[in-house]
Design brief:
A 7-stranded mixed sheet has the order 2-1-3-4-5-12-11, sandwiched between helices. Strands 7-6-8-9 form a 4-stranded parallel sheet, with helices on both faces. The longest helix has 22 residues, at 2-23. By secondary structure, it is α/β, with parallel strands linked by helices. The protein is built from 12 helices and 13 strands. It has 2 domains: 38-134 and 280-317, Rossmann fold, CATH 3.40.50.2300; 142-278 and 322-347, 3-Layer(aba) Sandwich (Rossmann fold).
Length: 348
């Protein structure tokens, strides 16, 4: 595919050079092909609404530039049809590799199929495209994300009522977070120590939906709510807003994940118990590495695989870290993920 793209772009330049050389022998050098040989990667993103995804975009763009890779980046704004159209445009432009963070894990199989029919390898970035046989899935240990949340909340609130704000059902990671969390909670549920007083799956990860649901549960069962497990920090923010409005913030512990700046600020002032740090630079580094291998026509191998519903695909898994008030300086701040002065700004 890379050679085809090079030849398609280089042909008009070669013709122009030949004409010029015919009229001015040895006076005008032929154009070099260095620019034409640069790897072109299409990065199809589902959304840029959360702080986390803005960080992915910026880190990916910077790392690609550092590696001499050109990148086309699109934002589908949580619209599956729009994402398909954007991928189709990338295919038309002749990208060498498609990196896709799918909005809808099922619907996006058509994006993968479109690319593969054009001979373009596909990397499923952070979220898995179902039933599509992508070349590699590069993400975090998403089961562990839920596992860490479950452990933290059980330690802080070993008894009482829990609200579960699960992620969007069309995001494959949501199921993994949920499974990891429930495997921690289930023994306490079975023993009658904790009760699930409210649970929902938040379509498109909409903060307003999470706020409305939490408010409704608090209105009906407020005195029974002791903990909230939110599938990401944006949903945790919604829950905390609802708790504040209901004047229950001091009585309820909340956990999230993504280590968003606002979440880290809430942790240091005590309104959020914990988050889970996913080192995005590591995710980007592995993705850039995979782009290079695939562009060279090499197959991706991995120690782990994941079932996409039809195929077993290579899974490059990156570890995650629980972040609390006690270790925030030694994790997200030490790594440079957030600046100390930004994290502690709300606590001044």
């Amino acid at each position: 595919m890379r050679m085809k793209r090079f030849l398609r772009r280089a042909a008009p330049l070669a013709l122009a050079a030949a004409l010029l050389l015919a009229g001015c022998q040895n006076e005008i050098p032929a154009p070099t092909s260095s620019e034409e040989e640069r790897l072109l990667v299409g990065f199809s993103m589902a959304t840029l609404k959360e702080d986390r995804w803005l960080r992915d975009r910026d880190i990916f763009s910077a790392k690609a530039k550092q590696e001499g890779i050109d990148v086309l980046i699109t934002n589908a704004n949580n619209d599956a049809d729009r994402q398909y159209e954007q991928v189709a445009d990338m295919v038309e432009q002749g990208v060498d590799v498609l990196v896709i963070a799918p909005h809808d894990c099922d619907n996006s199989a058509r994006c993968v199929g479109l690319a593969k029919r054009a001979g373009i390898p596909v990397i499923s970035y952070d979220r898995l495209v179902k039933n599509a046989d992508v070349d590699v899935y590069i993400s975090f240990d998403n089961y562990k994300v839920g596992e860490l949340q479950g452990k933290a909340i059980l330690e802080a609130v070993p008894e009482g009522g829990y609200i579960l704000l699960n992620g969007s059902e069309d995001d494959s990671n949501s199921q993994m977070y949920h499974q990891g969390c429930m495997d921690q909670l289930q023994p306490a549920i079975d023993a009658g120590q904790i009760q699930i007083v409210g649970e929902t799956w938040v379509q498109d990860w909409r903060r307003e939906t999470a706020f409305a649901f939490t408010s409704d549960v608090l209105r009906d069962k407020g005195d029974r709510v002791n903990a909230v497990i939110a599938a990401n920090d944006s949903l945790a923010w919604a829950a905390i807003d609802a708790l504040s409005e209901a004047q229950r913030m001091d009585q309820v512990k909340v956990v999230g994940h993504d280590a968003d700046l606002a979440a880290c600020q809430r942790i240091v002032v005590g309104t959020q118990l914990m988050t889970v740090y996913k080192p995005i630079p590591d995710l980007v580094d592995k993705t850039i590495e995979a782009c290079k291998l695939l562009a060279e026509g090499k197959e991706i191998d991995g120690e782990k695989t994941i079932d996409d519903g039809t195929y077993q695909v290579p899974y490059w898994m990156i570890d995650v870290i629980a972040v609390t008030k006690e270790n925030i300086d030694d994790t997200v701040i030490k790594d440079g993920f957030h600046l100390k002065e930004d994290v502690y700004r709300q606590g001044e």
